[in-house]
Amino acid sequence: MRLGNLITMYHLDVMNKVILLCSCLMGYSYLMEGFTAWYSMNEFIHHTFLQYIAGDYWWVGWTTITCNVIIPQLLWARRCRRSYFVMIFVAVAVTAGMWFERFVIIVSSLHQDYLPSAWHIYKPTLVDYGILMGPSGSSLRWCCCLPGFCP
After folding, report:
1. 37, exposed or middle or buried, with CB in 10 Å at 0-12, 13-18, 19+?
2. How far apart are CA 76 and CA 17, in angstroms?
3. Is the pTM of this model over 0.85?
């Protein structure tokens, strides 16, 4: 849309600083979650946090931490904050990290409840896949209507 005069590199640099700030706040909240679990010694909070980092879905927890906290740390370097490739990489990683966080919140809270008899591994159904893929259908429709791609 030729918005180069309206959205400058300064604006993108400031946007990346906001992403970096939010990433640091997320890292702080993850650390405080672990500290609270350790300090309170509440067995339920302790168990939930250990499931987050070392349970059946440990890979989802660590992917969340990596995408939301570790990857955005690239933005400390001015050169990375002004690189389009790094901006897009960090934005996609943070988006994926936030989706993984939603997965952690829903699935890990359902997969080990207070009753051990209700513990089970989550297996997605066709409805779950449909809900996951549904929003991308509208995105694909808009991409196909770009100039030169419309039927």
Report:
1. buried
2. 8
3. no
